[in-house]
Amino acid sequence: MKNIFVGNLSFGATEDAVRSMFEAYGTVDRVSVVTDRETGRARGFGFVEMSVNDEAERAIAALNGRELDGRALNINEARPKEERGGGGGYRGNGGGQRQNRRW
User: Fold this and answer.
1) Any bridge partners for residue 67, and if so which?
2) CA distances from 61 to 18, 39, 58, 77 (A)
3) Which of 32, 48, 77, 103 is the most buried (most CB within 10 A)?
4) pTM value?
5) Looking at the predicted structure, is the pLDDT value of residue 87 above 70?
6) What CA–CA distances, in Å, run from 37 to 47, 61, 65?
7) Is the four-CA dihedral 84, 56, 49, 31 of positive or negative sign?
8) Average pLDDT, the chain
9) Which of the 8 DSSP states describes residue 97?
10) Nearest to 61, CA basis, from 20, 34, 24
11) 54, 51, 67: which is closest to 17 by C-alpha?
């Protein structure tokens, strides 16, 4: 299984449009266009999973730089998600000024 990063998508890009581009090169198992939680609008990137590595490699080679909705796509093999440093926890009051309250 190969996970493919698709970057520089237009904000109006749909999973169907991305899927149809990749299906010309083989079987597409899953397409995910990442969207903004608040607006629901595409964030400009997504991922495609293809189970046959040779098909995925052909798709990457053929589609990298190809235009979709007037934007040249950046397509390559997705890298594993990196662990983020720091780690949650309480951060205090954020450094803001303390308010004087009268009870």
Assistant:
1) 72
2) 15, 33, 5, 10
3) 48
4) 0.76
5) no
6) 17, 31, 28
7) positive
8) 87
9) P
10) 24
11) 67
User: Of 24, 19, 12, 7, whose CA–CA distance to 69 is shortest?
Assistant: 12
Taking 60 as the threshold, does the pLDDT of residue 89 lie above it? Answer: no
Residue type, 8: N
What is the tens place of the pLDDT at every residue in 28-71?
Answer: 999 999 998 998 888 999 999 999 999 999 999 999 999 999 99
d(CA 35, CA 50): 21
The C-alpha atoms of residue 60 and residue 83 are separated, in whole angstroms, by: 26
Residue 88 has pLDDT above 70, yes or no: no
Q: Which of 44, 49, 45, 71 is nearest to 60 (CA)?
A: 49
Question: Beta strands 67-68 and 71-72: pairing type?
Answer: antiparallel
Domains of the chain: 2-77 (3.30.70.330)
- Distance between CA atoms of residues 78 and 13, nearest Å: 19
Amino acid at site 29: D
